From TrEMBL:
GO MF entries: heme binding; iron ion binding; monooxygenase activity; oxidoreductase activity, acting on paired donors, with incorporation or reduction of molecular oxygen
Organism field: Marchantia polymorpha (Common liverwort)
A Pfam family annotated for this UniProt entry: p450
Domain of life assignment: Eukaryota
InterPro entries linked to this entry: Cyt_P450, Cyt_P450_CS, Cyt_P450_E_grp-I, Cyt_P450_sf
Chain ranges passing through the membrane: none
Name of the protein this chain belongs to: Cytochrome P450
Amino acid sequence: MVAGQNEFKKIMGDDYVVNVLLPQLYAEIDNEVAIDARTRVAKMMVMRILLVFVFGPGAEQYANMLVPLNDELFRVVDINNRIEFFLPPIAKPVSWVYYRLFQKGLVAKKHKAYEEILSQRGIRYNLKNEWSLSDMVQEYERNGEINHHQALQIYEECFFGGQDTTAGAVEGILKMIVENPKVLVKVQQEMDEVLGEGEQFRLTDVERLPYFQALIKEGLRLHRAIPVLNPHCAHEDSTLGGYDIPKDTLVTVNIWGLARDPEAFPDPYEVKPERFLGVDTNYSGTDGKYIVFGLGQRICPGQSVALFMVNMLIGSLCQRYKLALAKDWKHERDAGTFFKEVALHLNLMRRVDSHEIAG
């Protein structure tokens, strides 16, 4: 399994995304004046990368099938979340009915899609040279540690928990960049100086690009995937900030509010990647101020994959294009749990000819 994980690092860390998935994206958007960045870049590319992560190289071809199913399921869950928030006395029975009528059927459709991918690729009980998550899951299933339904649910957790959250962060950071063009100029200058002309941005370059790292941290501060953490339960009576919190109280951490606390982040609504330069800030959440993926034992298990996708997509787009808001795009609100504005539309202009960038 260690050898398989090393193969996976090769696939996810560099070659497959740079040599296959990014050129596929460039071929789709290079000649377009304006694009729907939410669907064409954020959702579709995140889904393609997740498909490679879960099922291996070549599985990205199923993104066109899974993105609409994921969108439909999120709409159903979003409505259910509103019922639970605004009508708590009747939330449990209504949610049960809602699940039976809508959500269960959509999950079944997605499970059927996973079965098709497994069948078409011939990887069920048949390990390939290219390691993927499904190899490990199939091994657990073959050994009797999990059943087949549980295996399908593991795949579902990856796509339901990983796609829209990461895509929302990618879209939010892109919006932040185009609304602050000086930030984009600084990132591109750093890339040009450090990478030089003709060198394609890779994941291993991130550690050489401190301003880019700061940009991603600032972007995830302002555009994190979710505004609050999952509820926790107080194990004993306690007092916090002058408030008495009885034992067994459900406590929700408002990480959206923490990210905008002026004591932790002066001028919190200003975009200032510089605030993270020369500061030892990581994604563990242990400092109690900068919490993106949760913390402790319940920290997001997909953190490393999410950061990989955010870094690769934002870095590659910044290196390749001059980015600007499409002229007809309006800052309109579209209420929902994950996306609060209408889909971001961008104008793209190539910075570097494709022949000048190494593959």
